[in-house]
Write a structure and sequence with these properties.
mainly beta; seven-stranded mixed β-sheet; 6% helix
């Protein structure tokens, strides 16, 4: 598990390209037959990936040493969305079939979590988000049909997109973790524009479904001190509460968002007037 410190907005202004990438970009989310995690001190979110190919991938009990607990999920909740082939997740002996673009919420207090693929030639790829939790809500699978959809934007502004909310109060209870997937319509390349910040929550974006030759220019920073990160397929960005989070691609893409913080009100955003961006 890699540890990332929280970065003050004044510090971020001084970073060069590599400095910004080192602090906010997570490049290697998926590695075959491994669990890869990044622990961020920004609201203590953990993001990462599990990609079982030739063998199952387990959450080791030793991760509790990183969180100061007996085992990893003793005081944490876990959310995941499968962006690969059909897979299975075994939670304390109960097996859940999690197909492509389906999600699973794993309850606080779950001790044994294991990931498997049904076909090594088309492995599952579980993108993970994990947050501190105070209550054990039930473990549950959420299909794409069960996710709460919201369509925003328009073709004229190249930002027509549907937001599928998997882990939100309208779908199932969680302690603080919110998680979903945004799919852009053909011909639309902008996400989350017009942009916003949310002082009361941080967010992480994970980009995928991208051609190898394409990139997303992810906009970050304070609205009057914008910066950008060049992001490639299956890479993630950590976004502090003071930073906007928006992007435009050179081709089609999809992204998963995860939020943790003070509340679970999806609409609690501090919108940024386009005239103030710099």
């Amino acid at each position: 598990m890699e540890i990332r410190q929280a970065i003050h907005s004044e510090h971020a202004k001084t970073l060069d390209t590599q400095g910004l990438r080192d602090q906010f970009l997570v490049e290697d989310v998926f590695v075959a037959d491994q669990l890869r995690l990044v622990y961020s001190h920004i609201d203590r979110i953990i993001i990462g990936g599990a990609m079982p190919v030739q063998e199952p991938v387990s959450v080791p009990a030793s991760l509790g040493q990183q969180t100061g607990t007996e085992y990893f999920l003793e005081r944490r909740e876990l959310g995941m969305i499968n962006i690969g082939g059909p897979g299975e997740v075994i939670v304390d002996g109960t097996r859940f079939e999690v197909d492509t673009r389906e999600a699973l919420y794993v309850a606080k207090g779950s001790r044994d979590v294991q990931f498997e693929s049904r076909d090594a030639s088309n492995p599952a790829a579980f993108y993970l988000s994990c947050a501190p939790a105070h209550h054990a809500h039930p473990t549950r699978k959420i299909t794409l049909a069960e996710a709460s959809p919201q369509t925003l934007g328009d073709a004229a502004n190249s930002n027509r997109r549907t937001i599928y909310k998997f882990l939100v109060p309208d779908v199932l209870p969680t302690c603080q973790l919110l998680m979903g997937m945004t799919q852009l319509e053909e011909g639309s390349l902008w996400n989350t524009m017009p942009c916003h910040t949310h002082e009361r929550r941080m967010e992480a974006y994970f980009y995928f479904d991208m051609a190898a030759s394409n990139v997303v220019f992810h906009m970050m920073g304070e609205p009057t001190e914008t910066r950008h990160l060049v992001v490639r397929d299956r890479q993630a960005v950590l976004s502090p509460s003071w930073s906007l989070h928006s992007g435009v691609g050179t081709g089609s893409y999809t992204f998963i968002w995860a939020m943790v913080g003070e509340n679970q009100a999806f609409a609690d955003m501090d919108h940024v007037d386009m005239t103030t961006l710099r």
